[in-house]
Amino acid sequence: MKRFGLVGFPLGHSFSRAYFNEKFKRLGLSDHKYDLFEIEYLKDFPSLWDRYPDLVGINVTVPHKENIRRFLDRLDSSAHKVEAVNVIKKEGNKLIGYNSDFFGFKQSVINYFQGDLKVKNALILGGGGASKAVEAGFLDLGIKYMVVSRQKLKGDLTYVDLKNDPTYVQKVDMIVNTTPLGMHPDIDTKPDIPYEAIHAEQYIYDLVYNPEETAFMKEGRLKGARTKNGLEMLHLQADRAWEIWNG
């Protein structure tokens, strides 16, 4: 048996198990299995590999993408670039950390514009591990950005700054939500920004994929902006994880 899985807490919203188990079925890999490992505290992470000696690769989701790095033997360049890990591969007795979120977001943006990148500057809402993947993607694409966080230490701006000066929102080409606000079941929540400043020349991107249209995206659509959710990014990063495990 080759076992894979997802580590995070909580995991009720995850699509990964169904996605990978369906992939295994489609590929005729009856000896492959994907499980969910709800781990609230990372002190319990090392024992996971002792309990499941057939475990060869895992995905990592919130809230562990940054802190899990200290439990790994080596980081791939993608994980160094993002300073967060969402894919771990076991090589012998070593655990190697990667980041496929970075690849997924970057490729999704390229697909969004079909080769004609119309974004020069952006706002990133949220300063967590997902935000770092978006930052790395923007850096590779040559897009200038500012990070908005509740605490000034985690970003360039705070949400209060945006409310005090809505032109921060008005003057950018793209706004990306990297927070879990709006995710099912809390579908009415959204980042606290001045939505009246959004306009039809902008692109609204939400890493949340469930529901299909988040409250954040709806605000953008009502202002005439183009919107995109995180489902394609999710598929791209998952397929990249599969490549890493089989590389």
What does the secondary structure layout of this molecule look like, with pairings?
Layout: E1 2-8, H1 16-26, E2 32-38, H2 45-51, E3 55-60, E4 74-75, H3 77-82, E5 87-91, E6 94-98, H4 101-113, E7 121-125, H5 129-141, E8 144-149, E9 157-158, H6 159-164, H7 167-170, E10 174-177, E11 203-206, H8 215-222, E12 226-228, H9 231-246
Parallel strand pairs: 1-2, 1-3, 4-6, 7-8, 7-10, 8-9, 10-11, 11-12
Antiparallel strand pairs: 3-5, 5-6
What does this structure look like?
It is a single chain. The protein is elongated. The mean pLDDT is 95. It has 247 residues and is α/β, with parallel strands linked by helices. The longest helix has 16 residues, at 231-246. It contains nine helices and twelve strands. The strands form two sheets. The protein has a six-stranded mixed β-sheet with strand order 2-1-3-5-6-4. A six-stranded parallel β-sheet has the order 9-8-7-10-11-12, sandwiched between helices. It has two domains: 2-99, 3-Layer(aba) Sandwich (Rossmann fold), CATH 3.40.50.10860; 102-232, Rossmann fold (3-Layer(aba) Sandwich), CATH 3.40.50.720. Helix 4 packs across helix 5 (129-141) and helix 4 (101-113) crosses helix 9 (231-246). The protein has helices at residues 16-26, 45-51, 77-82, 101-113, 129-141, 159-164, 167-170, 215-222, 231-246; strands at 2-8, 32-38, 55-60, 74-75, 87-91, 94-98, 121-125, 144-149, 157-158, 174-177, 203-206, 226-228.
Protein structure class: alpha/beta
Shape: elongated
Strand content: 15-25%
Domains counted in the coordinates: how many? 2
**How are the strands of the biggest sheet laid out side by side?**
2-1-3-5-6-4
The major beta sheet can be summarized as: 6 strands, mixed
The number of helical elements comes to 9
CATH superfamily of the largest domain: NAD(P)-binding Rossmann-like Domain
The H-and-E topology, N to C, reads as: EHEHEEHEEHEHEEHHEEHEH
Can you identify the CATH class of the largest domain?
Alpha Beta
CATH architectural label of the largest domain: 3-Layer(aba) Sandwich
Compute the CA-based radius of gyration. 18 Å
**Approximately how much helix is present in the residues?**
25-40%
Give the tally of β-strands.
12
Mean pLDDT: 95
Distance between the termini: 18 Å
**Low-confidence parts:** none
CATH fold-level name of the largest domain: Rossmann fold
